[in-house]
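REVIEWER CHECKLIST
Item 1: Sequence provided? yes
Item 2: Single chain? yes
Item 3: Sequence as submitted:
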Amino acid sequence: MKDWSIYFEDYLAFLTLEKNLSQNTAEAYMHDLRLLEEFIVPEYGLMPEEVEMKHIEAFLAHLHDRGHNRTSTARILSGVRSFYNYLIVHDKLEESPAELIESPRLNRKLPVVLSHGEICAILDTIDLSTPQGHRNRAMIETLYSCGLRVTELTGLQLSDLFFDDGFLRVTGKGDKQRLVPVSREAVKQINLYLEQRNHLPQDPRHKNVLFLNNKGRQLTRVMVFLIIQEAVRAAGIPKKVSPHTFRHSFATHLVQGGADLRVVQEMLGHESIGTTEIYTHLDREFLKKTLEHHPLADWEP
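Item 4: Structure as written out by the authors:
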């Protein structure tokens, strides 16, 4: 009988130590691996390094027969890919049998996404001659840099800034907290705003809130929306943009850059990997549009 458990301890260590995933996320990966083992070993009697693409495809068909929906199947496939990437990194395989298998398509409306150039154009419209301008620039940089929900942005406290470690502490849905990496540019803009913040009124009840309105109180979601609308209009961008658009753009650009889907899930604070899966489809749309620029894009055999 083939025993895959010889890989389990090292793979779990790889997830938690090398990839720095949380215990819950690492356990989700382990669950995906065990599902694959429970199908492959009785059905084919193979060890992981003997598995081929056709076996993975049979496994996905098995999941469908067992009632797994597209979202669940896509999540499990992501976990299988992660395991085979681990085998490649540790020189146990040269290529992954799951590499060329496409995730199941999810029938969802794709959200609006800004290009990096459009985000830069929006930022360039902001007047930095006022403290409010520095605040607005820092807010948008933070939305895009960290992929925050607007309520997570407005709820940021001064005590949530861990710039020496390169993180923000974010309080998301259900008051669940997570640490999110913050870019150097966002740190720079927040620090510039903090210098200007001293010139703004400060309501004692909101003194620890990072982003303050003109009365020194915590900004509302509506105010952030209006600030962004004005900047988008000034940049001449015709898309319908909201604070959440920067969150979608953050995630999409990460996936386009090859980021692991479960890491993106953790950074966004999604409960389910299925919610994060939409960004793989946004990525495919990006690839299709990129192909349009190919000199043979209109060529027909």
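Item 5: Key structural point noted by reviewer: The first strand starts at residue 161 and ends at 162.
Item 6: Recommendation: ____
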